[in-house]
Amino acid sequence: MKRNVLIIGAGGVAQVVAHKCAQNNDILGDIHIASRTLSKCEAIIASVHEKGAMKGEGVLKAHAVNARNSDEVAALIRETGVDIVINVAQAFVNMPVLDACIETGVAYMDTAIHEEPNLICETPPWYGNYEWKRKEACAEKGVTAILGVGFDPGVVNAYARYGIDTYLDAVASIDIVDINAGSHGRWFSTNFDPEINFREFTGTVYSWQNGAWQSNTMFEVGKEWDLPVVGMQKAYMTGHDEVHSLATNYPQADVRFWMGFGDHYINVFTVLKNLGLLSEKPVTTAEGLEVIPLKVVKAVLPDPSSLAPDYVGKTCIGTVVKGTKDGKETEVFVYNVADHKDAYNEVGSQGISYTAGVPPVAAAMLIAQGTWDVSKMVNVEELDPKPFFEILDRIGLPTRVKDASGDRAWNA
Amino acid sequence: MKRNVLIIGAGGVAQVVAHKCAQNNDILGDIHIASRTLSKCEAIIASVHEKGAMKGEGVLKAHAVNARNSDEVAALIRETGVDIVINVAQAFVNMPVLDACIETGVAYMDTAIHEEPNLICETPPWYGNYEWKRKEACAEKGVTAILGVGFDPGVVNAYARYGIDTYLDAVASIDIVDINAGSHGRWFSTNFDPEINFREFTGTVYSWQNGAWQSNTMFEVGKEWDLPVVGMQKAYMTGHDEVHSLATNYPQADVRFWMGFGDHYINVFTVLKNLGLLSEKPVTTAEGLEVIPLKVVKAVLPDPSSLAPDYVGKTCIGTVVKGTKDGKETEVFVYNVADHKDAYNEVGSQGISYTAGVPPVAAAMLIAQGTWDVSKMVNVEELDPKPFFEILDRIGLPTRVKDASGDRAWNA
Asked: Domain Saccharopine dehydrogenase-like C-terminal spans what residues (chains A, B) (predicted)?
């Protein structure tokens, strides 16, 4: 049975992962946290102790690591003796961390697709450019690698699998809908790393429709969604990781991702983008300083983890699957509603970090217990969703289903 | 008779100054252009020759200078043997250039108030913080220094003086109105150096009303103005140089400055300001690079001088003076209308640079001829406006008057 966990990263999501690992250290064993900045890891450990989150006595330790250096990560894996790595650092380090896991033979997971700093929005399917190139190596060495196991991507992939397997004979479309109806009270802020947030929206919006990749621009295609708890919400078709694996695993279905945006967000984004301030390419100031505009925008925006104390309201994120069952048109929405204030009270983070950080801990528990220890590289829709939902129900992200028969717990 | 001119700066305004000096080199003699970047001076010289702008055979020469270094400027003044310095570089160099002129005993002029890079919007009257501290030194050495002799400040100060002297017994208010009804066809651009442009609007809006300095915020006070040629236009009370000298010279009058802004400009400005991207104070990126956000915004925006070829439409800038004449309430608007395309055809610059660059050349001609060679430091409203208008009429910026009796040339 695999256990002992190394968390890479020390941002808002890492904080949630650390708290949840601590709450389940009877299953997960030793917990190590590593990032470039040791003090950020130490602050997370202090917050875990402050909440009394450790279920039992055990190891909870901070380390400094340069995660862009695969050898350094491998050395840390060996030194700490961990069996599972939860990578929730910036998406730029996925490949070196994955390589370190393959090298040392331990389980790997992440919550977002690998990105190269100087490239935005490469050719679809995105996973094919980086992670999937290690499929063979994982299979050969029997390494379990679960890609994109945050909320979206992650839980929503499991929702798609579950909705299709349970309610459809044939799937026609998979629409992931992500609505944050919360309010942070700032004039403007992104909910997670501004650099990663904006990079999502500056490139081509890829969707999979009519059996082929389709291209749109951001905010070109909008649609109103009437959702549980959060009500009627406008969302826009957005490029997102899970489209790229779901389209590969369900090529017969249209696969789209929709994210909710208010007019204020769209206005700020549009101004910054049109001025060139979201560019990942360096510019030179009149004084001769070379600087990447997006990194300056990040520097002036609020640190997303600072939003947590004032964040109120709820998120609703889920997957709409449509198709036929017994020859009849059928539609099911599998979803979760999370509350920002509840998340803060429990782990000191806002809801967006909470929904992203809880799922990889559930996945780590399933690996530790052997259920998801599949000895190969997979995306979440390739795994049995039910044991995942059972743990998520228990540790803070209950799954619900809404269809023509009503709105209920998935296992009601 | 003073002659031979050194132009400091090589931006859009300097280009206009160089062309206009060349067109009048029978009066102005040798023409030297100096800036940090020699190639920019050389490009201006090439453009002067391309338009065949030199009235007669004569010197037109480029120099490299660090204008923040007063000794370097003084050395260049001695080397070139000039008698008049037209400073149209960034406003950060006013004081060292002025000191070099006092040191060498030559005439000085500029078109904008001195600024320190790290300070925005100091206590009023602004001139009192820097330039006016050299009044005594100028008087002692008999140095002619004409402050703020662009269009606004500059020509509008002369408009105020002329309107008051000619049409009023007692002045009650001076309102300067600056409307650019032109279109550059870009998504967004400032019309002159973005750094200076935005710095004008991020601080307190000072006006002089009811015999005291009043404070407002930018875009807080708006007013519709019905103007010749450009029609009904919304303008906002704005902090601006000329308020600070006119309030000192006409303390009995309310003195306000109004600048026209479209909703698009206001939206972009508001987003950038509220995010902190217009700050002159450095921030540190996640990678540890220290950078001033405003300088990055400048780096991504279009170079204002690049707008000229596509700029169409007109500017209307003038001064409304109100008061009493023979016991009756009287109001007069003294103004100029300039055309962007005409400016480009004549000197290769857009209208905003043109209106700023022509007046200091007229002033230089008046110094060369002795008319304005006053051997002390003055603001423009302290000088006889009529010879100034006569030259401006001839060299491209005719003065008009509109009042209850109609709309006419000032000397009709």
From this structure: 150-396
| B10 lies in the same domain as B92 | yes
B188 and B115 inside one domain: no
Whether the CB-CB separation of A145 and A109 falls below 8 Å is answered with: yes
Report whether pLDDT(B1) > 70.
no
Q: Are B67 and B77 found together in one domain?
A: yes
Contact B359, B340 (CB under 8 A): no
Rounded percentage of chain B residues whose pLDDT exceeds 90: 90
When the pLDDT of each residue in chain A is averaged and rounded to a whole number, the result is 95
What is the domain count for chain B? Answer: 2
A200 shares a domain with A137: no
State the Cα–Cα distance between residues B359 and A255, nearest whole angstrom: 63
Share of chain A above pLDDT 90, in %: 90
Mean pLDDT of B229-245: 96
CB pairs under 8 A between A and B: 87
Using the Cα atoms of residue B8, residue B9, residue B12 and residue B18 in order, give the sign of their dihedral.
Answer: positive
Looking at the structure, do residues A172 and A318 belong to the same domain, yes or no? yes
Interface of A with B in 220-279 (CB under 8 A): 267-268, 271-272, 274-277, 279
Phi-psi region of A81 (alpha: psi -120 to 50; beta: other; left: phi over 0): left
Distances (CA, A) of B122 to B109, B217, B301: 22, 14, 26
A378 pLDDT more than 80: yes
Among B267, B286, B300, whose Cβ lies nearest the Cβ of A295?
A: B286
Closest residue, chain B, to A195 (C-alpha): B286
Within 8 A of B268 by CB-CB distance, chain A residues are 271, 275
Q: Which residue from B100, B88, B109 is spatially nearest to B383, judged by alpha carbons?
A: B109
Q: State pTM to two decimals.
A: 0.78
Identity of the amino acid at A121: C
Secondary structure of residue B321 in the 3-state scheme: strand
Q: Same domain, yes or no, for B285 and B340?
A: yes
Max CA distance (Å), chain A: 69
Instruction: Tell me the C-alpha distance between A359 and A373, whole Å.
Output: 15
**Closest CA–CA distance from residue B142 to any residue of chain A (Å):** 36
pLDDT at residue A1, as a whole number: 63
Angle between helix B12-23 and helix B340-347 axes, rounded to 10 deg: 60
In this predicted model, which residue has the larger pLDDT, A305 or B363?
Answer: B363
B179 torsion bin: left (phi>0), alpha (psi -120 to 50), beta (else): beta
CA dihedral sign of residues B258, B264, B265, B266? positive
What CATH number does residue A61 fall under? Answer: 3.40.50.720
The reply to whether B293 touches chain A by the CB within 8 Å rule is: yes
- DSSP annotation of B37 reads -
- Report ipTM (2 d.p.): 0.76
The predicted-structure confidence for A54-65, as pLDDT tens digits, reads as follows 999 999 999 999
- Residues A391 and A245 reside in one and the same domain: no
Domain containing residue A166: 155-349+399-409
Asked if the Cβ–Cβ distance from A297 to B275 is below 8 Å, we say yes
